[in-house]
Amino acid sequence: MRLGKTISLVAVAGVMSGCTSTGGVRQPSGPEMVAPEKALVLPPPGGPSIISVVERKRGNGVEQTISLFTSSSVPGQNFLKAQFLGASGANPGMGNAKFSMINESGIAREVARSAPGVPMATSATFLQNAYGPFGYASGRSRAGDTCIYAWQQIRSSAAANTQARNFGMIQLRLRLCDARATERQLLGIVYGYTITGTFDGLTWNPYGNPPPADAALGRTGEPIYPDEGGYRPSPMPIGYEPAPAAVRLPRKAPVRSAPSPQPAQGAAPLPAPIGPRVPLPSEAPQTSAAPDAAAAPLEQSARAIGATVPSPDCMGDAAMTAVCRR
């Protein structure tokens, strides 16, 4: 009897629980698409545009893969990866991400996977943007495309962690390949991106304590001028749109005068003419019926331009003679 009552009670409880169920469809937790304006890291103005943002929530933080516009023949997609770690219990049941520091072997594997077929070389120069130091590797493909892979870890110093605060960490990765940009233009994106995501509470602040004010403020003998270009380095240019090529105008060839006709062999060289030669009346004999063949073209040219050149014998009072009236 007791066994029968127990079975009856279990059946009734099952029926009641079935009646209270909503029957809704639930999507399992996993990566999801979010709007581009909700990206935790934004490229600089003029930089590559955001194509999509895939977000994955973790038990100890959030991860985002921000796909960027790509104009390259190198296989793969340009991206910005952001990993915010340290918010313990922020997303329970999602699983925790591995809290690992940057190491040389791990970065080498990431660089090799970032741009297949492109020989990448790690830069040994110490660089630093607004969020702290970072490293990068660069290379050029056979087709001439330029690629960079940059990494950065934002975490407060060990001294700040002893105060039971500033335990958060941000890991950033940037992959960029472009067919027209140079290495320096692509590197400008690392200097120009903006981190918009934050942690709740000072316990997980990854930036550490704010730096103190400049010691020169308010001090006598420390002038501050409005023009800061004299003692502060200029920032990296933002964006990587290549500048237009310089247009060079062809040089104008020097104008050369036409060569003068050379005299015949055995003849004396003639002086350079300064204008049309007009024969005088005294030079031509009056009894000659046919004018000189050489003087005819010159007389025609003189008439063509309307010039009348009087004889020296017809100057002054002699101009009234009958010969000069002709």
TrEMBL record:
Q: Where is the composition biased (Pro residues)?
A: 270-279
- Protein's name in the database: Cellulose biosynthesis protein BcsN
Species assigned in the record = Rhizobium aethiopicum
Q: Where is the composition biased (Low complexity)?
A: 257-269, 283-299
Q: Which Pfam families has this protein been placed in?
A: CBP_BcsN
User: Residues annotated as region Disordered?
Assistant: 250-299
Q: Which InterPro entries match?
A: CBP_BcsN
